[in-house]
Design a protein that fits this description.
By secondary structure, this protein is an alpha/beta fold. It folds into two domains: about 40-220 and about 315-335, 3-Layer(aba) Sandwich (Rossmann fold); about 225-310, Rossmann fold (3-Layer(aba) Sandwich), CATH 3.40.50. Helix content is about 35%, strand content about 20%. It has helices at about 15-40, 60-75, 100-105, 105-115, 125-135, 245-250, 270-285, 290-295, 300-305, 315-335; strands at about 50-55, 80-85, 95, 120-125, 140-145, 155-165, 190-195, 215-225, 235-240, 255-260, 285-290, 305-310, 310-315. Helix 2 packs parallel to helix 4 and helix 2 crosses helix 10 (about 315-335).
């Protein structure tokens, strides 16, 4: 179900809404813990690296996953990216190709495929099956997208992503807060990655629940708006976990936003949505702009009137993480899986 992020999740002081929902949050946390403990894991014959969030969305997981797949590929790994395929119905695992559509494989898979090429991203609810098929096709490394809460496929390394600005929010479990699991599960990951558009500078403070001996990394993102947008009035819209991050980043690029509209995460745009946005842009003498991920969910006839703004990883900020991952993966896999 598409989710609109409640404001009280990220308030410094826990609101009455959070306390009211706390009993449901406790039950949800217990259910997640029991499910994890009761699941039997399947071990893949090649290393498995997962990236995910302890929080619900908004950490830049997809652009980071694309950057990691490219960077590790340049170091000799043959990477296959596994995705659940948000909003898709098929359980059969398949590679994402030029013939794939957003309705078949999901917006994130389409974004991966457009950045990495055909056959790198695999979609299917059974990610053990996806991994086996990818290895049979030649993969020497599995990158499990949104894998921190996926228990069936055993992982060799887990990366937990945190937005530098929002971090853990009110530190309560869904629905009282943004956490997918109780806070003590943050320590389960092997590495912590702070993401965001802010200058990296000093490393953010160690969040509560993260062991001081485990590595932390800070990766910076930047928007790359098309040059023609600099002189235009804009109506920005998106359906992502933390929409205000996108709007703030656009303003930081010097763009003039005359209106903004947010939709639930992974929102599938209907004709009525686009007509509303077109009318809003016309009334303000403005052009429409959105994220690349949202662009995957636009009807084709609207794509030519909406500008897409890519979000990229600043390469220099990714290097320490790539070096650490490559070293750990080589040690795990041995020479037969590398190069």
């Amino acid at each position: 179900m598409p989710l609109t992020t409640p404001r009280f999740w990220y308030q410094r002081r826990r609101s009455w809404q959070a306390w009211l929902l706390w009993p449901l949050a406790w039950l949800y946390g217990r259910a997640v813990t029991l499910h994890r403990r009761s699941t039997r894991r399947w071990r893949c014959p090649v290393p498995v690296l997962s990236i995910g969030n302890l929080t619900l969305g908004g950490t830049g997981k997809t652009p980071l996953g694309i950057a990691l797949a490219k960077g590790l590929g340049e170091r000799g790994w043959r990477v296959a990216v596994l995705l659940r395929g948000y909003g898709t119905r098929s359980s059969h695992s398949c590679p994402v190709t030029a013939a794939s559509s957003c309705s078949e494989v999901g917006d994130e898979a389409m974004e991966y495929a457009q950045s990495l090429g055909e056959g790198v991203a695999w979609v299917g609810s059974n990610r053990c099956q996806s991994a086996a098929l990818a290895v049979a096709a030649g993969a020497t490394l599995i990158l499990l997208d949104d894998g921190l809460q996926h228990w069936r496929l055993a992982r060799d390394l887990d990366l937990s992503l945190l937005d530098r600005h929002h971090e853990l929010g009110n530190r309560l479990v869904f629905p009282a807060g943004p956490l997918r699991e109780p806070l003590d599960q943050l320590a389960r990951a092997d590495g912590l990655v702070f993401t965001g558009a802010e200058p990296v500078g000093q490393m953010p403070p160690i969040p509560a629940g993260w062991p001081s001996h485990k590595p932390r990394f800070a990766v910076r993102f930047c928007l790359e708006p098309p040059p023609q947008l600099q002189q235009q009035r804009l109506v920005a819209f998106c359906g992502i976990g933390l929409p205000e991050k996108f709007f703030s980043a656009l303003r930081s690029c010097g763009l003039e936003l005359v209106a903004t509209e947010s939709f639930p995460d992974h929102h599938v745009y209907a004709d009525s949505d686009l007509q509303f946005l077109l009318d809003l842009a016309h009334a303000n003498g403005a052009c429409l702009v959105t994220t690349v991920k949202d662009g995957q969910r636009l009807p084709h006839r609207f794509r030519e009137v909406v500008s897409l703004v890519p979000l990229r990883v600043v390469p220099a900020t990714l290097t320490p993480l790539l070096n650490w991952l490559d070293q750990r993966l080589v040690a795990l896999a041995g020479a037969q899986f590398h190069g």
